[in-house]
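Field reference: sequence -> structure
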Amino acid sequence: MIQFLLNQELIQTEVHPATTLLDFIRYEQNLRGTKIGCREGDCGACTVLIGASSEGSVNYMSATSCLTPLANIHGKHVVTVEGVNLPNGLNKVQQAMVQCSGTQCGFCTPGFVNSLSGYALTCSASTTDEVISAIDGNICRCTGYKSIERAAALVAEELQNKDAQQPLSWLIENQFIPDYFLEIPERLALISAEVPATSGQLAVGGGTDLYVQKHDQLHGLELDYLFNHSELSQIQISGHQVTLGGSVTVTQLMEHPFMLERIPEWHRFLKLISSTPIRNIGTIAGNLANASPIGDFTAILLALNAEITLQNSITKATRKLPLRSFYLGYKTLDKQPQEIISQITFELPMQRLFYFDKVCKRQYLDIASVNTAISLQMSADQITEAHLSMGGVGPTPLYLSATADYLIGKKLSAQTLREAEAILQTELSPISDARGTQEYKRLLARQLFFGHFLSLFPNQLNMQDLI
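Structure field:
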C-alpha cells in the first residue's frame, strides 16, 4: 500500500504503483487544477510540489506529475494548486498573478502558481533572476510571458525579507502558504518510510525518460522503483573522486558544493539541461541508461572519463566498466536486463578544466542537435590529459578517443586545434534528420570544438586564427 499526504489528506491506496501521479490526482481524487498537457514534461501544466522529510523538516521541490510514478511519492507530501489556497482568499503568489495580469486562458496558471510557491518555500536570498529560473519548466501560449515575469518579480520582492530562521512560519504569516504546512513534518513521521516492495524487472528512477517513451505500456506493469532507495541517492566525495548513486538527481549534482567549487561554470552548464521540475526528479543513471545518442549527461560524464558500476538486482553481483564502453550500438547497451547502474565514479582534480555546450532549436528545455563536453589537464601550455565527447553525430554517444589521443602531449596552439579538428571529423558519422542536416551537424561539431578552447583559453586563442 502506498501512503502519502495529498494537500491535507492522508492517502492510503492500492492503485497500481506505476500509475502516474497526475492521473491519480485528477481521476482518483478529482483535483482538476492539475492539468493534462503534453504528458512529456515539457509544458509544466501538471506541476506539483513534492515534499520529503529531512531531519525534522520537509524539503519541497517542483515536479512534473505526468512523469512521476505513484510509487515514488510514498511517504511524501504532494501539494497541488488546491493545496496552496488560503482559507480566506488568494495567497501572495496568486495575488501577484492577478495584479500583473499573468493569466489569460488559465490552463497553464496552476503550474506557474505551484512553481512560484515552490520557489517561496525553497529560496534563501530571493532575486528576480532566480524566481524566473524557477518557472523555466512552465510554458504559456497566451501571455507572451512578460506579465508572468512581472508577477514573478513581485513575488521575489515580497520574499526579500523572508526569515531564514523560521521560514515556514514567516511564509504562513505573510500569506504565501496555508497554516496546515506546519503540521506536515509530524504527520509524515507517522508514515512508514519503508519503500513498498516491488518485484518488477524493468527499473525506473525518476521516470523522466521511461514515461515519455512508454507511457501507455507502463500502466499495469510490475516495475522496480529505484528513486527512493537511500543507498542509491548519495553523493560521496573522497579526495578528488566523486561517486554518484544511481538515483542521484540532476539537481542534487547541480547544487553540490564540491562540483560548484571544482567547475566554476557548473551551474550554468547544467541550466542547459531540461528544466527545474525535470532536473528535480530526473536521475543521472536514467539519462545514461536511456542510451540516447544526444543524452546531455552522457556527454558530460564521457568527458569526465567516468566509470559505471552495474549491479544485478537479483544476485547483487557487481561489475565495473568505463562509460565509453557501455554503448554498443544505437540504443544497445553492455547491460543485462536485470542489471541497474548502481554507481557512477569520476575523478575531478583541482586543476582540471571542463566545458560543456549544446546547440538546439531553443536555448532551454530542448533536445540538442549536437552536444559536447571536454576536460583537460594542462602543464604550462602543454595538454597532458584530454577527454572529449560529442552527441548527435553518430548512432551512439561518442567518446572521441582519436582526437583526445592526438591532443595529449601537444602544445596549445591554433595549428594543434585545426589538426585535431580534422581528426575529429573522421570520428563522426552524423545523419540528416529533424534536428539538422549531416553537413550542419559537422559544422556544429567543428564550431563547438573550437568553442571549448576559445572559452577555456580566451587570452591565448582567437577565432580568426582557428578559421
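Note: The first helix runs from residue 21 to 28.
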